[in-house]
Amino acid sequence: MAIRSLVREDNRTPRFSLTRGRVLAGAYVIFGVLVFLAVLAARFPYGDTISSMIAPFNLKITYQAQRMSPPLGAELENVRLLSTADPSGQPLIQSSAVRLAPTIASLILGRPGLRLYAALYGGTLNAVIRRRADLVGLDFVLDRLDLAQSGPLRQLGATLDGIISGKGSAEFRGPQISDDNATLALDGNSVAVAIMNGFPPVRLGVLKGALTLENGIVTLKDVEAHGGDVEVTANGEIQVAPDLTDSTVDMRVLLRPTADGRARFGMLLKMLPHGPNGGPFTLSGPLMSPSIS
Length: 293
What we know:
alpha+beta, 15-stranded antiparallel sheet, 5 helices, disordered N terminus
């Protein structure tokens, strides 16, 4: 019995050693790959990569400082996205901190690509940017952006409040907006908009809908608002001009005032071309001052 026991133990030992050796070898390989990726990421030209991606679209970025962001990537501080065609130098987007990391395809295959995480207007933006020939693709998720903190909206004269989230994608082919395509699924809460001086903001409440951009036209499909001063359903198009203030709108909007809305805006409702029960209203003409019928 003792001899048989010794034989069994001797037969098991090589198997155990072989298994342990394979585990250790696998661990070394994984560690080596991680070190290799870390070295590549540390040397990755973040600024040059993103600048080369957006330069054909008359865009550039500026930032105050860059530091490493473990495990892979870098963090840029006080980032501003600017239009090189705008002499005013007003930023299109600005963020206090943007984290960048190369995609696996960019590290291994050399295909330009970045993962991006940005603090934006009190919320966050997560995105993946890829460059393919003359096309830049973007997949993004917006989470809890505060409309009241949006500088570009204030520059357009829009007075908005509320929290907006959404997700979508975009393809940029040239510096003109007519060259680009995009889709956005929108989800907002506590949204309010000031539509006329001297009147309080109209509370829209929960806002949901889908927007698409194609051939320079933004299409709104079943954009709805509930739980505020009015129940709203909007469908239509916005023809986007190079100067956004020159854009035009052609939209049909169905309004159903709530009891609170009638109490707060009874006088304003009487100024409309017809009562809310008369069917949808048509907005047409300049985006900033459309006619209503």
